[in-house]
Amino acid sequence: MGPAGRTLLAWDFDWSLIEENSDTWVIGQLGADEIYRKGREAGMPWTQLMDHTLREAAALLGRTREDVEAALQATPLHPELADLLRAAAAVEGGEAVDIVVLSDANTVYIDTILAHHGLRQLVAEVHTNPAEWRGGVLRVGPYHSKPHSCSRRCPANLCKGKVLLELLERRRAAGRQYSRVLYVGDGRGDFCPAVLLLHGGGTAAGGGDAAAADGGGGGSQSPCGGSGNRVYARQEYPDGLPCSLSVMLRNEAHGDGGSPASASVAAVAGRQAGAEAEARVVPWRRPQELAQLLRRELHLAA
């Protein structure tokens, strides 16, 4: 049973809340795979690649805003997760649940998909790459316009650990304190916030801006590193391939990841703390399993 008090339920979006990668899904639906492939072979950073592919799909293939929106509305989102969000958002009083999304997709994709399923009003904040329609073409830019100083292999355009710390600090300053954070993710970009929640702010971003946002190397403020936090890490995709987050957390817990993150956690937390943190990582494979796990944690009726 989790601790009493308000909960922050933080979601990654692709392969976590939805059952697809929204970026590559839309590209496939638009028939722009060859444009995407050439851009990737040219070494474009991901966000720039998405912007390029959408522009070229409009210019060369005649794809329209309506085509993009139709692709987004067809994106699979499991009904049990939609029901879970509705049930979680309906909890009132001291044990209420606030829902946020931290994603490397973009604002138009997430807002459109959530609105299509009647869920957008349930999500308090969405933090993702900004996007807007310009002359019928969707343009996408990076979330961070300046370096984020994170050493946990976050993409240059988005450090979710920094975003999460700033969100928690901003809400705490406004008088909203959380007893715990439940984080759902699958990929490399989810590793930074996961380690932050399992081990605390002092190890959040290699001493960079994210750590400073939580008070630096001193004791981290709850719920960062708190015993009530849980990381719901997807183990594998529908095709059976392992998810990066679960692999990275397993390597980090056993100190065999060969990365600065593994070394810093081993030095600061120690083996016993690492084992305790690993016990707070909840594995899942399919969305209906995740829905059941979260309902149990939040004491929601099935």
From TrEMBL:
Record has Metal-binding as a keyword: yes
Organism: Chlorella variabilis (Green alga)
Lineage: Eukaryota, Viridiplantae, Chlorophyta, core chlorophytes, Trebouxiophyceae
UniProt GO MF annotations: metal ion binding; phosphatase activity
Positions of the UniProt region annotated as Disordered: 207-231
One Pfam family it belongs to: Put_Phosphatase
InterPro entries named among the record's database cross-references: HAD-like_sf (IPR036412), HAD_hydro_PyrdxlP_Pase-like (IPR006384), HAD_sf (IPR023214), Pase_PHOSPHO-typ (IPR016965)
Record-annotated active site: D12 (nucleophile), D14 (proton donor)
Protein name from the UniProt record: Uncharacterized protein
Binding positions for substrate per the UniProt entry: D23, D104
Ranges annotated as biased composition (Gly residues): 207-228
Keywords: Hydrolase, Magnesium, Metal-binding
Cofactor: Mg(2+)
Superkingdom, taxonomy of origin: Eukaryota
